Here is the input.
Amino acid sequence: MSSAARAYLGRRYALSASHRLHSEALTAEENEAAYGKCNNPHGHGHNYVVEVLVGGGVDAETGMVIGLAWLDAVVKERIVARFDHHNLNCDAAFAAQVPTTENLCRAVFALLRDELPAGQLEGVRVEETENNFFEFFGASLPAGGR
Amino acid sequence: MIFLTRRATFSSSHYYWNAAWSAEKNEQVFGRCANRHGHGHNYTLEVTVGGEPDPVTGFVVDLKWLKDVMEREVVARYDHRHLNLEVEEFAAGKMIPTTENIAIAAWRRLEPAVNAAGGAQLSRIRVYETAEIFAEYRGGQ
Here is the structure.
């Protein structure tokens, strides 16, 4: 039983991965101009923080929006296990798009949305370093799209 | 609309327990948070207000005023207290002091004070239980 009060629970997960920003649609010079040192052919890595924001009614019996242990298990299986200590460029999610953190953010949202009860995934934030982060709230993701 | 956010911290103890359940069910649902001796956190309360900057001062709200309101309404009541035993809205099992419910309770305490001052509306409350976990509430019943 949930009360009507919608609240949000945010949880942060760390993962370390490498990537190279490079577009096949651009020339070598254009890639260099667009991505600078991130275009280094050997790639580089980050300690990413993925912040998952879940929204829903506060359950009258538990006082919780979602069971943290359950959310942890889902995110660890679907996101952390998949990307942590991997090269993002080798992942199927980035076969057709550059693994910028914008696109990683959208990919994480798409991977998690259907794992959670409908309408509960409010947004995903991915911090690439302490000084830059990206947020996606799903509005532009087609329904059912992965 | 400009949004302005202020943080404050408080340290409290709590436990999770639903008196309508058996001890076994409480332990199953709440795990180590059901320990009746309680445990504690350093909480961070993050309050966001939204409004237009005053044409004279350039402020959405006076930050010192907001600090005092947060202190009076929330921090002074929760800091170095046992939420289940000493804080009215959680006492006697009225509401389990989960981070979600703390965010809602803080909203209920802060909204009248912020909105009565005029010029800004309470927009969002975040309560961090640890650096990795927070609950957020934006009002609306």
About this structure: Chain A touches chain B at residues 4-12, 53, 58, 61-65, 67-69 (CB under 8 Å).
